[in-house]
């Protein structure tokens, strides 16, 4: 019950913050800051899970003193929180700037016209932050003294996280470069099929799964549970992107060749 009570503030903040964003942007039919709202949600819930006991003591119970130094936390707590922070700032800023430059996000062209549906998506974002971030929040709410020392499994997890983050960054950069060249009339390709996009139709999401698998693996030594094995894999934008591609490139023989020859997700994996 003590652990649950410490989780509640982080979960409540996830939904509360997205509700605030919804109150601001749903009436405006403005989806440009949707991903920015997600990044802020990740950062705030992670911070709150780490500092909630100290914040409660200081501002609720009136205990004088400053917030605890970073050195008071277990190395695993610092690593896992930093991993989320780096990922959230990088991806959130990238997606937000892309939406702002493009004048919007095509995923929400119809959704934003319905206040109920648009609000649902903001709440769905809060649910995503809650469920996928659960191992991070659990690690952070446990007292630092109970966390075991870092071992080989933890270093492998950090390696998986770092390599997957690099993979995602490269994939995003390759597509941005491709799109810029297309806008400059340097090629007339309708979809990208080069670089990492030549070994997976969704290399950015592949990197995303690796990132969250690494974060989950980093948490397991402290949690010692297999109850949260595939959270990041289950939350994926691949199916709607596939449907959008089929609709946009219907009748394009190059798209069908690409789909039949390039794996949908894992390199050297199935194409369907």
TrEMBL record:
GO terms for cellular component: membrane. Keywords: Membrane, Transmembrane, Transmembrane helix. The chain crosses the membrane at residues 6-26, 33-54, 74-97, 118-138, 150-171. PANTHER family: 3-OXO-5-ALPHA-STEROID 4-DEHYDROGENASE, STEROID 5-ALPHA REDUCTASE C-TERMINAL DOMAIN-CONTAINING PROTEIN. The lineage of its organism: Eukaryota, Fungi, Dikarya, Basidiomycota, Agaricomycotina. This is Uncharacterized protein. It comes from Psilocybe cyanescens. Pfam families: DUF1295. PROSITE patterns: S5A_REDUCTASE. InterPro entries: UstE-like.
């Amino acid at each position: 019950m003590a652990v649950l009570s410490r989780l509640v503030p982080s979960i409540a903040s996830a939904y509360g913050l997205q509700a605030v964003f919804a109150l601001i942007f749903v009436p405006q039919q403005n989806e440009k800051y949707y991903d920015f709202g997600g990044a802020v949600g990740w950062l705030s819930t992670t911070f709150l899970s780490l500092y909630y006991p100290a914040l409660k003591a200081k501002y609720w119970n009136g205990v004088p003193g400053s917030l605890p130094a970073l050195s008071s936390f277990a190395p695993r707590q610092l690593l896992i929180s930093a991993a989320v922070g780096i990922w959230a700032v990088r991806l959130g800023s990238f997606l937000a700037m892309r939406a702002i430059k493009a004048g919007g996000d095509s995923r929400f062209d119809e959704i934003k016209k319905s206040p109920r549906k648009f609000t649902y998506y903001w709440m769905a974002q809060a649910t995503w932050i809650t469920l996928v971030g659960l191992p991070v929040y659990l690690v952070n709410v446990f007292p630092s003294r109970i966390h075991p020392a870092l071992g080989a499994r933890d270093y492998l997890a950090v390696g998986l996280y770092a390599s997957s983050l690099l993979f995602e960054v490269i994939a995003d950069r390759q597509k941005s470069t491709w799109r810029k060249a297309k806008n400059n009339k340097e090629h007339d390709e309708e979809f990208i099929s080069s670089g990492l996009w030549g070994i997976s139709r969704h290399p950015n999401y592949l990197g995303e799964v690796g990132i969250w698998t690494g974060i989950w693996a980093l948490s397991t030594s402290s949690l010692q549970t297999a109850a949260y094995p595939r959270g990041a894999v289950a939350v994926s934008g691949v199916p709607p992107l596939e449907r959008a591609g089929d609709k946009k490139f219907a009748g394009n023989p190059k798209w069908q060749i690409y789909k039949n020859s390039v794996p949908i997700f894992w390199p050297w994996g199935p194409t369907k």
